[in-house]
Amino acid sequence: MRAAILTAYRQDLALETVADPVCEADGVVLKVLACGICRSDWHGWVGEHPKVKPGAIPGHEYCGEVVEAGPLAKWRVGERVIAPFILSCGQCPECQSGNTTTCRAQRVPGFGEPGAYAEYVSAPHAHNLARLPDSLTPALAAGLGCRVTTAFHALTGRAALQAGEWLAVHGTGGVGLSLLILGRALGARVIVVDVVQERLDHALSLGAEAAVNARGGDVAAQIIEITGGGAHVSVEALGIEATANGSLECLRPLGRHVQVGLPVGHTATMQINMNAVYMKQLALYGSRGMPSWRYPSLLTLIEMGRVDVRPIVARQVALSDATAELRAFDGPMPPGVAVITDFAG
Question: pLDDT for 13-56, tens place per residue?
Fold first, then answer.
């Protein structure tokens, strides 16, 4: 099969012919229909993710068609499925309690295992997969990736966002746009923060009530003024110290901070304003991915038209364009995300 290989950090991915993946007993092999290009992939490409080494095939936001199924897998050849990026074992105490994103034996394609920047990908633990609705195109399904699903779980499974509450979103990339769209669908009043005015304008066009350009001064003070006391829920979607502190400091007393941005490499350890946490008695949540059993509820909302994910995917690209998209994460990004849909080009 054709695949994009990381040969050296920050270098062009090599397009090579490699062996087709092996189907595991409880898994399937998928013909990849689409795969999102994510900032988490960038972390691996630049050498800041400990599980991504030269020789890796990136890609963890994918959907595909089953071309082979193991004897313990419930799926049949020809079915279209979408995969969470955390493939949980289903057997450990965390999985048995429903908290599959903290599985002790989790497997993540693209991070220690071959990913989906390829024509085919192995998906072990296929009980995690969800059927891809006919109404959802592969590009949009891959756009859900770890963005919409992560955002949905962060807001509903962690922060318990309520209608009428103020939601602050720090960073308007793929997951930031997802937080905006879902927050609005849940009845929240949403403020977005970024340093790229084009992205802020795009967010306003999608229903954000206010937008704060972080280049313009004290973000927290501006949000507290706009909201009349601070956000009820604030989500950090970049994984850097400045926005993590801005998220904490913009909250009102008893507010809830959710850490969605990936702190890894040089940002894994941060100096955090714990005085703000203490004085305002804030709640801090980490959120990574979404349990696979929650996929049907989110997909149903999308099928019903309650959530429109179309604004998230801005570009459909070829496999050969993946390096250019990864390099783009080094600077200010335009609105929307890129999805690989052409694996021959």
Answer: 999 999 999 999 999 999 999 999 999 999 999 999 999 999 99
Question: pTM of the entire structure?
Answer: 0.94
Q: What is the distance between the alpha carbons of residues 98 and 79, in angstroms, rounded to a whole number?
A: 25
Of 333, 319, 291, the residue nearest 94 (C-alpha): 291
The backbone torsions φ and ψ at residue 211, rounded to the nearest 5 degrees and listed phi first, read -135, 135
**Number of alpha carbons in the 13 Å side-chain half-sphere of residue 115:** 35
CA gap 276, 280 in Å, rounded? 6
Distances (CA, A) of 201 to 19, 166, 211, 288, 304: 45, 19, 8, 28, 27
- Provide Rg for the chain, Cα atoms: 19
Q: Say if residues 6 and 117 touch (Cβ distance below 8 Å).
A: no
Question: What three-state secondary structure class fits 201?
Answer: helix
Domains and CATH numbers, the chain: 2-146+290-342 (3.90.180.10), 150-286 (3.40.50.720)
State whether the Cα torsion 150-265-216-336 is positive or negative.
Answer: negative
Give the residue among 243, 249, 244, 252 at the shortest CA–CA distance from 215. Answer: 243
Alpha-carbon span 258 to 125, nearest angstrom: 28
Q: Which two tokens stand for residue 268?
A: 């894994």
Residue position matching structure tokens 């296929």: 126
Amino acid at site 327: R
